UniProtKB/TrEMBL annotation:
This is Uncharacterized protein. GO terms for molecular function: beta-glucosidase activity. It comes from Polypedilum vanderplanki (Sleeping chironomid midge). It comes from the Eukaryota. Residues 1-19 form the signal peptide.
Length: 488
């Protein structure tokens, strides 16, 4: 026992000597994030109608690797008190969750009172515990009947979304002051409508579906933003933003120029951010010109990248009070021309890949590149006139029931340090919500990859939330408002 204590003091002494400390502003807000389909379960309860993820996960030979579904998931529809307790135990002051469109509106666009009641209760309880609700309106669970009309490729969806947003402002806007219209269109537009990796699993030639989707997402975001400003802001005084995800693009070698880096960033982040946050508005010029030209070369009389009208450009321009940013990972990039590849394969003509030295998680796409977060935040500051940024997702995956989640602890320490450095260098980051509060349904990876800072055993009927080591880290960070990173 004594020896053990001694070792402990020794090692904490070492730590004090060989650790660097990164501070955060005193008003910085810490929290955790989740999404309705990934945690709620109760998929056919109290009038909830089917979503595209019910369809994708229920079909024979579904693409979900372990054949699982979100039918029950973390059962947060029943156990939301456990989520609130988990947030409280850490001292988190904000909770980013999403509202399920299929729970609050019926097929005929009537309000489903039971759905409203559920979120109302959740919001009230959070507020009682002094945890700010930050609500994502759309985290991928589109009502299936809307997909049957073409989903995000049908221009009519813009009006449907506006009506849905109106319903949310009306019922919850007295208590919710931070609204995120969409989560990661870069993931679900091309994933869902270009490559078929995500629900509704549609594949289209040359990203035609994905470009239509992102176009309508932007218009729907603009409609929801202006609806809030015109109809609700005077009373409710909240903020509306959109959640975008990207990594940073690092030059793979000395032949890759800054121009290549910018091109990669504009085709990735700029496709969504430029129309809203840039100085000029509209799609990034490099993207506009490249895709118009390619479309002509392909013999089309229209561009695969739709055009905004002048009025639409103006209405989208500046249509956000903050940028919600999800950051997980980054890439090395190299132009196709250096590789002698066929430019027809991708509109950006930029190849991206991982450095073999980057630490790998349990998800094939996720490697640890904390420097990427730092550079990304500075790129955003320089290109979009230093917007207010909330980091709304950042996290690490491991295997089920990894309670000693040292990989996650290290990842979080290094990313929080990178965020602190960016703030020191002038970036306006004011909130951080870790992905994710609990283990949950990780889309096509089912329950095989785990992102929670609380573990869940999905065969436990009680779905106990079991703190991993990263919970201790977050407690310390919330308490002290600094993070320590070991130096080697
Ligand atoms: C995000 N990528 O998705 C989502 O917002 C969450 O719902 C999800 O659980 C979480 O990150 C972890 O995957 C992403 O390939 C999916 O770069 C894929 C990528 C990034 C984010």
């Amino acid at each position: 026992m004594k020896l053990f204590l001694k070792l402990l003091t020794l090692s904490s002494l070492n730590f004090a000597i060989f650790a660097e400390i990164y501070n955060f502003p005193s008003n910085f807000v810490w929290g955790a994030a989740s999404a309705s389909y990934q945690i709620e379960g109760a998929w056919n309860v109290d009038g909830r109608i089917p979503s595209i993820w019910d369809t994708a996960s229920h079909k024979n030979n579904s693409s979900v690797v372990d054949g699982s579904t979100g039918d029950d998931a973390a059962m947060s529809y029943y156990y939301y008190e456990k989520d609130i307790q988990a947030l409280k135990d850490i001292g988190f002051k904000t909770y980013r969750f999403s509202i399920a469109w299929p729970r609050v509106l019926t097929k005929t666009n009537q309000v489903n009172q039971a759905g409203i009641d559920y979120y109302s209760k959740l919001i009230d309880r959070l507020k009682e515990e002094e945890i700010k609700p930050m609500v994502t309106m759309y985290h991928w669970d589109l009502p299936q009947y809307l997909q049957d009309l073409g989903g995000w490729t049908n221009p009519a969806i813009v009006k449907y979304f506006e009506h849905y947003a109106d319903t949310l402002y009306k019922h919850f806007g007295d208590r919710v002051k931070e609204w995120i219209t969409f989560n990661e269109p870069a993931t679900f537009c091309d994933g869902g409508y270009s490559w078929g990796w995500h629900a509704p699993e549609i594949r289209t030639e040359k990203q035609i579906g994905g470009y239509l989707c992102s176009h309508h997402i932007l218009l729907a975001h603009g409609a929801a933003y202006h609806l809030y400003k015109n109809k609700y802001f005077a009373d409710q005084q909240g903020k509306v933003g959109i959640c975008l995800n990207t990594g940073y693009s690092f030059p793979a070698n000395e032949n890759v120029t800054d121009e290549h880096v910018d091109r990669a960033m504009h085709f990735g982040l700029g496709r969504y951010a430029n129309p809203i946050y840039s100085v000029d508005g509209d799609y990034p010029r490099v993207m506009r010109e490249a895709i118009d030209q390619k479309s002509t070369d392909e013999g089309r009389r229209w561009s695969r990248l739709p055009h905004f009208t002048t009025a639409q450009v103006e209405s989208l321009h500046g249509a956000a009070d903050f940028l919600a940013l999800n950051y997980y990972t980054s890439s090395l990039i190299q132009p196709y021309s250096h590789l002698g590849w066929n430019p027809a394969d991708s509109d950006s003509e930029i190849h991206s890949f991982h450095d073999d030295n980057w630490k790998r998680s349990s998800s094939s796409w996720l490697v640890s590149v904390p420097e990427g977060l730092y550079h990304l935040l500075l790129w955003i500051k320089d290109n979009y006139n230093n917007p207010l940024v909330y980091i709304t997702e950042n996290g690490w995956s491991d295997l089920p029931m990894t309670i000693e989640d040292d990989g996650r602890v290290e990842y979080l320490r290094e990313h929080l340090a990178a965020m602190s450095r960016a703030i020191t260098d002038g970036c306006r980051v004011e909130t951080y919500t870790v992905w994710s509060l609990t283990d949950n349904f990780e889309w096509m990876r089912g329950y095989t990859e785990r992102f929670g800072i609380y573990a869940i055993n999905f065969t436990d009927p009680e779905r106990k939330r079991i703190p991993k080591n990263s919970v201790d880290l977050m407690k310390q960070v919330v308490r002290d408002n600094f993070v320590e990173v070991e130096k080697d």
